[in-house]
Amino acid sequence: MKEILYYTWGAIVSFVVAFSVGITYMGLNRKITARVQNRYGPPWYQNFIDVIKLSSKKTSIHHGVMQHMGPAFIMVTSVVSLLVIPILNGNKFFPNLNFQGDLIFLLYIMVFGPLGMALGAGQTGNPNSAIGVTRGLSQMAGFEIPWVMALVALMIQYKTTSIVDLMNVQVESGRWLMFSSPFAFLAAVMAMLGMFRYAPFDIVGAPQELASGPMSENGGKYLFVMMSAGSVFAFAKLTLYVDIFMGGADNLIILVVKTFALYLIPMLYGITSPRYRTEQSVRWFWGWPSFFGLLAILQAALF
Amino acid sequence: MNMIYILFSLMFGGAILTFLAHKVSGLLRDILFVLTILASTVLFYTKIHTGDAVDFSISGLPLQWGINAYGRIFSLIVLGLGVMASFYSVSYMKGKERLGYFYFNFLISLISMMGILMSHDLVSFFIFWEMMTWSSYFIVIYNGKHVQRSGINYILFSALGAYAMLMAIVMVYAHTQSLMIQDMMQAFPFFPVAYKVWLPILFLTAFGVKAAMMPLHVWAPDAYSDSPMAYTSVFSGALSKMGIYGMIIVFVTMVNYLPDDTWFRETIAWLGAITAIMGTLWAIAQDDARKLLAWSSVAQLGYIITGVAVGTPLAMLSALFLSVMHALFKGTLFMAVGAIEKQTGTTKFNEVTGLIRKMPWTFISSLLAIIALAGIPPLGGFVGKWMLYESLINSNHYILVIAIFFASTSAFLYCYKFLFGFFLGQEEKEWEQVKEAPALMVLPMLIMATLLLVFGVFPGIVLNPIDLGMQTLGFSTTAGTFWSMSGLFNEWGNQVMLQPLVYAIGGTFLFFLILLTVKGFKETRYVTTKDISSSGEVPLEHENLTFSEGFYQPFLRAVWPVMKRRMMSYYQGFGQGMEAFFDYLRRVYSGNGQTYAIYVLVFVVILLLFKNSLFG
Amino acid sequence: MINDKNSQKIVDIIQNFARQHSIWVLAYGTGCGAIEIPPTMTSRYDAERLGVRGAATPRQADVLLITGYLTTKTLKRVIRVYEQMQDPKYVIGFGSCTINGGMYWDSYNTIKALDRYMPVDVYINGCMPRPESVLSGFAKLQELIQAGKADGAKKYKENLEWYRTNQKKVIPNWHMPEYNW
Amino acid sequence: MVGSPVLFIAVPLLAAFLIPLLGMIWKESIRILPGLVLLYMLVLAVTLLGQVMHTGTIVEIIAGWKPPWGINLVFSPFTGVLATLMIGMGFIIWIYSYRFKNVDFEEAKKYFILFMMLVTGSVGIVLTGDIFNQFVFIEITSISAYALTAFYKHRDSAEASFKYLMIGSLSSMFLLLAIILIYSQLGTLNMADIASKAHLMKPEFKILAVIFFIVGLGIEAEIFPLNGWAPDAYAQAPGPVGAAFAGIVVKAGVYALIRIIFTLFDVSGTHQFLIVIGLTTLIISEMAAIRQERLKRMLAYSSLGQMGLVLVAFGIGTEEGIFAALFLLINHAIGKSLLFLSGSYLVYNSADKYINETNGMGKFLPITSFLFALGALAVVGMPPFSGFWGKFFMMSAAAHANMLLVIALILSVSLIELVYYFRVVNRIYFYKKESHIEPKKPTVNAVIAMVTLGVIILVIGFYPDVISGYLHQASQALLDKGKYIQDVLSTGQLLTH
């Protein structure tokens, strides 16, 4: 019982950490984007204000029970992936539900939320939402290929499907996987561009085309939960990348530094890019990224 | 008299009585139909025990019927789905024509599936196999003129497979002088090499047809989608599993003894993977729910085939587990489509939308089934997929994992399309009067969907019988090794999977759901789907804002180069060529008496000329 | 504790601060004024400093920016958009045309005074108002929000009858759902 | 003893002559008499068959001349099974055609006379032990068959009959030639005697005789290049006659061919020749069948193909193969007759008998259509119907003889068969009826006949042991050439002392 309480407490703390870091990253993204565009930009905490404002909206509408549940679905994905992904190396405080096969579990649970939210978006009856969802799913079929290739390369090289095992490998050898398996890292990072949905892969939300796509009927508290879930999820994803490729982190500060360094990649790539069409985006992922994925697998299989 | 005889006489008698009762009264017929299945299920599970067998002989051929633990796994699918589908069909088929015919064939196909599982010898196996083929064929063509083509395709491919099997059976018979499957298994290692290669190929052709393996799958999408939905759930859920049943036997007993079995396994595994990919892509391209599900069945069977072909204990376990899951979720989904067809009269995504509030129970069961189909935890599909990936990675099938994963990811596309097309989207006025399907149709779906959830959380319920069955096939027990292998199956009685994760999922979901509901509860209101932000316009009731045409057009554009070449067109070309050839040959019979007389003379002359070489 | 007056006050202060510094604008580009929005948002004037940001749909927006004259036809859409927005919501009338019709003062098909039809919180004067004045308009709105005086939505709800009568007077075929907040 | 084999020839022949006489007294008698006769023969045949299975072959000597010189009838398990089958089929076809030409007395009289002659001739071919006598019976059968083919007196049926006649006379010619050859060489016409002396013939003459026999009997047995007449005859003859052709006449032809090849001469290569020619017949006929537009022609071609299959099974030459061949033969007799009988009701009122004129008959003629479907399933070889067992036994026989390629060929041709039969069944049940076709309800006696056939199909299908015991003995009897010779010739010796 005590253990469960302890874990619950740890889960809440890690959620709060992930939430604040994730939101800060989003704010920093806006700030940096503004600086690149020669603007002053909003303060770094702007997204906190946005989230609070959204939560303080008095009214909200929904088109049915699926839309009502949609944000909860996506929150499940964020929280559960946060629980499964080890946040720090060998830290007992943050709950760590990882197990043999958690990488595969993560691949699927990461879809759980978006699909649930997509159901909510579908129920609004707004054509833009549905179009956004179809784009999102198509793009997912695109970037999952290099991403899975990278993971499979690591899995077969180290004969494990567990994140902790991969981290231990790096700790023991003292060498980050991004250096020992560069192609896998390359493929995974290219897939990450799609995962973060920044330009040129922002075809899902595309405010100018689809009026923010799946979220176009969500406001107030729904958007609040979605935004929070999005930032938590962003942090979870970055942590996963750090865990797998950059040897994890021993304390939170190193983790923040590493994740932010990774976060810069999609962000900076996004600031300087226009937008792809859906099939271009899908094909892009099946091009070079998948090629690097194949190289990674070859490397893993041969050496 | 032995219980096995009683079981078969009960089912046959029930089938014939049902057929005859059709002439007397509809109610009697329905009752007889359901009772037959129920009674035989009860009989099977209470009175017939693993290891029971009866021997008899027909015309000098010694035959044996019995049941072992391996067949029992599949009997779960057949009888379980059979019971559900029987209740469902009573309601679904109400008011249709030729019900005696339908129920008769339905029962015959169930009987023959049970027969296949209970055959210990090749002849009765083949007999039941063919009975299954024609009974299902008669249901495929039940819907009238427009489905005859799919029927002919189906019977043609099935017969191709069946004849391949017949050939293999007589080869075995000629070589071993015995028809027992057990004897074949024991004798196989001592067969000549040519037999060792040909027998598995012939058997796999037979089973591959039923399991819709590329390139023998072309009948499947049409046949699945054209038969009445009440039967398709059994057709796709259970009948196709007979192919898997046979395949596993072939792989365990034959391929293991091939001189070099790697290439064989790889080929079949890749065929399975390609089946999965192409099935998925074509499912995405469909605009009709029945076709979509049919292609999706093809794809799902592809995973199972891959699992079987890879053939490690874990892969086998996953294939069998996925078989059970596929039966459940595809059964549910086909039933849901049937319910929608019954209530709205169409199964096209671009015709019917927004049924979620009208048919909530159908929606919930479809939702659960779709989640399981997509392999998303915590439902049953995930466990199977997880085991499949794990086994593929452990057995060094790197590219195969990618292929399977691609198919599985793309499957989300059609999963979403299915739910969105029917249940979500604009709630059009046209479908305002639609009611939830009758309870008899909804209950089976709900029960099966619940089972999916239960099996997802407690996979041991299914995995234990599967483990027993695999021991019959000569695998060592997997329970000890795999339960402890991963936290997925942790120590809580070997039954519970993902316990903390399930709690985490449930807890998070509930917390945020409550948060969303409670926060500003009074100020949250429901608005209709016409009240959407569409540039300030107020859509009128007749204005259709539904998005369903060209749903995945961009994606399809991206994958079009792969889909351009269709297997079907090759077969069609071949068929047309053959027909032209036949037509040419037919002209030998010119209808002219003189020609015929000349034939006779020419024949005589030829015989006389070559008499020495002919009769020397 | 939540119902406690003091804590309610604290919550109000936090909420008003958030609302004040996070203004998501649905720019309804009705007239020529829409051309002034891009410079306002981009690097020269950079309205994002103030937390002002574009919103894609009325469901997410806080401020409805009416940029210029409104024909009766457009008015209907604007009303619709306004009613789809979530509380608390504000309206900024932009340009002279929204105040008194401006150069369209005698046009047969534009409305002259926006606040007869919608509760306008802030007017921005000028034809055209420069980005500077737009920014000052946003600043004014922020002030009002902080003071809790930007209660246009409340007014609208209270005087719905009056607004409806006015609206229906100019809009000939009225096919709108009921506004039932 | 209930009776002797000679009654199988004498009684129906007598009945054929009595029909017109009795017809003058009581018009109905022309219908009843053949039935009574056939029933009597059936009872007799079954009893005799039972007896033969226990006691061995019955050899009947006609007019007291002992075998090498006189005519004898041999009722062995093999011939007995075939004779019983033919008589049984004759009886069922009689039931079916009891009301045939109900109003036209003269026509009916003609039909029944010819029908009795046909049965007599065919049974005679099977039973006789004398080669010239067999020729005579073949002529009897053929002549009645020509007449029956032309029964409707249409242009088409006359043409078909003429073709049949023309080819048939060629057949007679070659048969006579062969018989002359043998007689000139051996000075005997008794089959057993020929068989025992065959090695005395000069090899060239022997081969020549075999070739002439193959051609002459091949025309009756409908092997490939010689069967041009068959589809026309089958299609133009009245429905029951078509059934009789498939169920009775062909069987006699095949019997004669098999007897020549298996018993009379042991020329090497004949078995292989049977397989090759059987396969050719099978393949070409099935290919022709799938492209037919008329129901009866399709059935006819399919019948040719089936007989090819039977020949292949015989050609395997082992006991198993002959057993399978006999099984196939019986299945073909039952199944194809059922198809002809039910099929002729399905296209009863259409002028051209096109297949698409059977559309939607399932609703109007439920029993007939059902039986047609059953027959189709049986002929195609779907378990658990009778056809499957024949096919299975044949396959395993071929596999035992290591003829895997033959199996593969036969199975691939079976696919074609499957397609065209199921196409028709689909049409019957699931297409909309052509508006101008008026379905004709089958009469009660026709239904009884067809249902009997259907029941037989089911019984054999579910319990093949009913006949397999007989067939095993029959196939042994055919293979045991020495016993045949001994049986026949020793009877003569018995008579002498």
How would you describe what is shown here?
The complex is a heterotetramer of chains A (303), B (616), C (181) and D (497). Helix content of chain A is 73%, strand content 1%. Chain A is mostly helical and 303 residues long. Chain A has one domain. The radius of gyration of chain A is 19 Å and the shape is globular. The model of chain A has no long low-confidence stretch (mean pLDDT 85). Chain B has 616 residues and is mainly alpha-helical. Chain B has three domains: 230 residues, no CATH class; 220 residues, no CATH class; 50 residues. A two-stranded antiparallel sheet of chain B has the order 1-2. In chain B, a hairpin with a 2-residue loop joins β1 and β2. Chain B is globular, with a radius of gyration of 26 Å. Chain C has one domain: 3-Layer(aba) Sandwich (Rossmann fold). Helices cover 41% and strands 14% of the residues of chain C. Chain C has a five-stranded parallel β-sheet, with helices on both faces. In chain C, α1 runs antiparallel to α5. The longest helix of chain C is centred in the N-terminal third of the chain and has 17 residues. The model of chain C has no long low-confidence stretch (mean pLDDT 84). The model of chain D has no long low-confidence stretch (mean pLDDT 85). Chain D is built from 20 helices and two strands. With 497 residues, chain D is mainly α. Chain D has a domain of 151 residues. The longest helix of chain D has 32 residues. Chains in contact: A-B, A-C, B-C, B-D. At the A-B interface, β1, α3, α4, α5 and α10 of A face α14, α15, α16, α20 and β3 of B. β1 of chain A pairs parallel with β3 of chain B.
